[in-house]
Each structure stands twice: as structure tokens, then as C-alpha cells.
């Protein structure tokens, strides 16, 4: 599923509900951190083994839904900020490889 | 850029740096919320108009880099949790449309 | 209400519920960020004027309860990390005054 | 150190720097989550044993400073929202004891 499709679905709902004026950079940034925390609520008191069990239970769908929410708000925030995510990801990978190589050749 | 490509690049660096044992669900969830906050630092004391100006300044690249970091940690966390993000996004869109329709037809 | 009293009440409940082994630094740090987000959920789509109205409605008590949760987790985390909050606050104030004076005298 | 003293010091600096107009509920809520994340950065890739070592190193002061920042923003946010933190804490403790008792007596 590509980002244009995700954004189109997000904007369709926002339009029908009249939520578009709320989708300012700051509101979306706050929504993004709220969604991340909602996902963290499922993990917070569990060990990594218990999280593994959780992900094989009926709750797994709720965690997946939180991750989908995070993805949607992230893409919407990037769009509102005018950030080309593909370009940002490519730049970041180049930078990560550069730093990694620098750390390998001696620091 | 598709999620397999992003994950492959993320894992390549993690492998070369010996970071893979650190990539547990809880550590990645915490990293995700830290990255969201690093992005928020650029927005936090600014009005939406000032954010618009920021995104036309040289700092825009830093904001874009934070958004790319969030995207990478999100995909890695989903992978470690065994969540199929495409399926999660499709399910979420169906659910969002259903709720929207329900709100339109009365309730 | 002083921090010793808050911590004693927190630990009493934790002891009766058998939650003490869960109160590790990382779990408490994650709980703290989850509580902050729960508070933010009340504010996230509202303007500052709407937040003012919210704080005069019946929901104000829920916001207050979230702030109390944040306060309790913050003090518990500090205790578990061995941080003396009074000393930390005094040091921070000295530092803030120093920076402020530096910025006033032309940097 | 009591909350009035902390708030007075916070407001003194804000006044000298002209930051008071920025101290709206939403900005303070975002600042609070950013400060929590700054603290989490020190813990995020470390095990609880490594965090214990960290707290005996020179970095401990930085963690303490982040906790102090969280405390200051929390009190300022409560003040701006008109929340009496002492009352909120007392109410929360009563509620926590009630829930604990309910869970002990079999619900």
C-alpha cells in the first residue's frame, strides 16, 4: 500500500467529518505522539516474552491498529509539512551508511 | 520506497554495528517515542505560521530526517511484532469508513 | 503534599498489588510517557480557548487525575534512579538563572 | 522544595526572557512530552543494570536535570490549566486505594 493511497483514504474521512481544519502541523504532531503512547500502553508492563505472547492473542489486532494509526498520522504530518518522505528516507539511509562506515574505519 | 527496502537498509546497518540484540519490541517502542519527540522539538514553541517558515529554511532537512527516523523505527517495530502493516492499514481504513458512515447515518 | 507522602502511597498500593517487580527504570519511564500522552489526548484537537472551557467542565477532573498520575510516576522514577529531586530542581534553577543572565549581558 | 517556589522561579525566568506568551496549555503539554523523551534518550538502549551504572557515572546529573525539567513543566501546565495538584493527588490516592480494595475483595 503506497503513501498516496493511505493519504487519500485519510483525507476522504477527514473531509466527510469536517476535520481538515484541525490537521495543522502541531495538532498532527501531538496526535502522532498520542498514538505512539497508545501503542506503548500494550507493551509497557510486559517483558519481551510476554509481548510475544500478546502478539499471538486476540489483542494483536489492537496493536496492529495502533501501528496503522501511527503510520497514517506520520504520512499526513509529512504531507502538511511539505516533506517528501521517499527523499527523506533515501537521504537518511545515505547518512546512516556514511556514519557506519566512518565508525568502522577507525573513528 | 517500499517497506522491504527500508527494513533491509535498517537491518544492514544494525548488523554491521552489532545493534540487532537491542532491537527488542520495548526498546524499539521507546526509540519510536523518542524520535517523535525529537521531531516535536522543532515545532514545540512555534505557531503554525512559524512552522511554515521553518519548513522553508535550512532546518527543514532536520525535520525531514526525524520523520524518516520515525518511519524506520515504525516499520522495524511492526516487523519485530509480526504485524503486516499493509493488512493493518487496510483493516484500519475499513474501520474508519464504517465509523464515519455510522456517524453520518444518525448516532 | 510532599514527595515522601506521595511515594509512600504509591508504594503501598504497588506492594498490595504485587506490582513492585514491574517498577524498573525503563518500565516507569515508559509509563511516564504513556501518562503524558493520556493527558495530551484531552488537549490534542482543542484550541487553547476550548481547553479553557474543558477545564470548566466535568472532564476537568479527568485531566487533573492524569496530571496526578504523571506526578506519581515522575517521583517514583526519580526514586528508583536514586535522584534527589529537590537537589535536581535547585541545580536546574541555578543553571536557568545563569543562562538567562548570560543571554541578557550580550552572551 | 514546594511547588510555589518552583513555579515562582520558572515564571521569573519566563518573564525576563519574554517567554510567557508561549506558555499556553498545548505548548506546555508538548514541552512536557519532549522533556520526558529527552530523559528516555538516556535509558532507551540500556538494560536496567546498565541504567544503574549510568546513574553512578557523570551522566547522572544530566538525567537529574531532565527530571527537574519534567517537574517544572508539569507544575506550570497544572497551574495554567487551573489544576490544584495537591487536591488532584489526594483524589487519585483515594481512587487508587478504592480500586485496590475492590480487586482484593474479589471485585
TrEMBL record, chains A, B, C, D:
InterPro entries: dCTP_Pyrophosphatase (IPR052555), DCTPP (IPR025984)
Highest taxon listed in the record's lineage: Bacteria
Gene3D superfamilies registered for this protein in UniProt: MazG-like
SUPFAM superfamilies tied to this protein: all-alpha NTP pyrophosphatases
Protein name: Nucleotide pyrophosphohydrolase
Amino acid at each position: 500500500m503506497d503513501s498516496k493511497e493511505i493519504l487519500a483514504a485519510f483525507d476522504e474521512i477527514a473531509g466527510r467529518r469536517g476535520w481538515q481544519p484541525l490537521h495543522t502541523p502541531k495538532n498532527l504532531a501531538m496526535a502522532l505522539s498520542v498514538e505512539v503512547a497508545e501503542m506503548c500502553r500494550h507493551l509497557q508492563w510486559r517483558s519481551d516474552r510476554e509481548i510475544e505472547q500478546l502478539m499471538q492473542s486476540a489483542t494483536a489486532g489492537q496493536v496492529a491498529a495502533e501501528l496503522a494509526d501511527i503510520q497514517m498520522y506520520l504520512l499526513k504530518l509529512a504531507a502538511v509539512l511539505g516533506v517528501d518522505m521517499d527523499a527523506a528516507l533515501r537521504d537518511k539511509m545515505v547518512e546512516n551508511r556514511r556514519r557506519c562506515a566512518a565508525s568502522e574505519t577507525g573513528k
